[in-house]
Amino acid sequence: MTSKIPSLEDLQQKIAAADALAEQKSNFLATMSHEIRTPMQTIYGLLELIGEEDLSADVRSMTSTAKEAASGLLEILDDILDFAKMDAQKMALDAFEVPLRTLVYGLLEALAVKVRGKAVELRHDIAQDVPFVITGDPKRLRQILMNLTGNALKFTEKGNVTIRVTRDCLHMTPTQGQLGLRFEVVDTGIGMPEDVAAQLFQPFTQADSSTARKFGGTGLGLSISKKLVEMMDGLIGVESREGKGSTFWFEIPALEVSTSETSVDLPQLDGISVLSVEDHPQGAKEIVRSLESMGATVESCPSYAEGLDLIKRRPFDVALVDQGLPDGVGLDLVKQVIKLRPSTGIIMYTVHDDSGLQHSLQSLGAAYLCKPASRAGLGEAVQDAASKAARLKLDGPTRMLIAEDTEGVQDVLRRQLAKLGVEADFVTDGKQALDALATGKYGILLTDLHMPEIDGYALVKTVRDREQDSSTHFPVIVLTADVQMSQRQVYMSYGFDECLLKPVSLGQFKRLLIRWGLMSEVGTIEEDDTSAPPTPDGLTDPAIDREGLVAQMGALDEGTIEMLQMFVEMTEPLVLKLKEELATGDAEGLTETAHSLKGSARSACATMLGELAARLQEEAKGSPDCGRLVDMIFDEFERVRADIAGMAKG
User: Fold this and answer.
1) What tens digit of pLDDT does each residue of 267-294 get?
2) 96-256 domain in CATH 1.10.3720.10?
3) Nearest alpha carbon to residue 113 among 276, 354, 341
4) Taking Cα atoms as reference points, which of 18, 64, 164 lies closest to residue 104?
5) What's the pTM?
């Protein structure tokens, strides 16, 4: 009996059915990842708000554990989204410069924390003929190596794990003009039998599938790595013997890039001021050289203390901070920058690929950039951070309208706004939002996408259509769990001005309100402009930094105000002394008095007075011809005096 040969039409129908099934599976994974993010707005947001309260040690510990679990869930969602995008062939690779040795060294440094307490050594072995820079996608190449090396460490209790890079490809022949690179992750771990190794790159498959799940994980890392390597036109595999360790390898074609050239267009950073806090001398030089080549002005320092001093002295458009500093932790410095200069765009530039750190930074409204980034990648991150940090002033009403139909999300947003001291009105669909906007009471709209009656897409389209015959532009911010919408080219194409991705953190919300003029840079404390003279030399910093004062003294209470009044009494003789020293041409005296004034002014959070004193200290060293600066200090001191008097009366 012979089997029937399927017709061409039958084959086409089967192919179409298979494609439809694959599309359905990818859509399901993407939708599931997206939908879980929406309730995470409530979970993560409330946990963050709880963490801001005065808690007992036990409750604080439980809250921290819950936040870590929420971060772990978000990491799994990111893996699922990556898998879905690749499965649906919707992921595109970038083509940037990849400094291979820096990538490998940084990756081993980031993974060093995972070998603490284990008798395992991390090693690298990069052949001399491997080029220093190639063209590729640094983020995805790093993701592959991180997955393979992290997997090796998971199954290795003693011995070593080595990342080896050579040009000795065994399974792939590069095309003309390209070179082949072979990456190996070699471990001395438990190994595995051949039948397990053969199935290892399938989705949701693990070498350890026992009920105990001793080694954990989702089983997606190796599958994602396989798909990424194949997208790079490469091959991936594993060689292993049970009890003898494993070698995971992949081979990819690559193009060598001259270290003196670039193959991509670089962003223009003209006029952008950057503070770089990086303790590695060569790394600091590379950051300065790269950013200055694109037009930025860069102030570089190697320590937490110097970075904090610089950010106190003057504002920057962007702060670029390393996590591992010799005298502190980068994340703590980021928090200080946000507190002192909320309008500064912030980037954590680090070798640590830590999802917990990444989500902590996201909750603060800061960007996360893994080393090594290409010149273009670093420049684009700075450009993006600077553009998001620009504060826009609203003409007319400043009251916020929020269109959101999920009660739990509404509750978190209300609590966040209450904590920030900002009022807003809520509606549950686009139709109600349009009716409310027609009253003219609102200056900005924050809207969800999926709502009854009229959704967010139709809502923003209607707003933009109504603007066609006028010169006005009404700001509309999209609030969504759709990761794709967070890309600027996507949300702007629909007419939105900005995107907030669920779960929205308190830090993100605060920075958005500052950018759009709904909050002042010093927080929610009202400034009485009539109580003090204009700032000298056109400078706009407050006479007394109230937020810094509260952070330093705990509260702006009677005791704090009494301290400030004592500061005025003790400082007035110094200011008068500057006039005398200027009249007699005493450069050394001017320098010493200015130094004393600088310290006392900064201790009292009289930021601008301290800045002017610091400038006088520097300029008086060479010449006593500093009359204009002394006059400015005198005027600023009077402004400080009036500000403190206003506090005492109020």
Assistant:
1) 888 778 899 998 877 678 878 888 888 8
2) no
3) 354
4) 164
5) 0.49
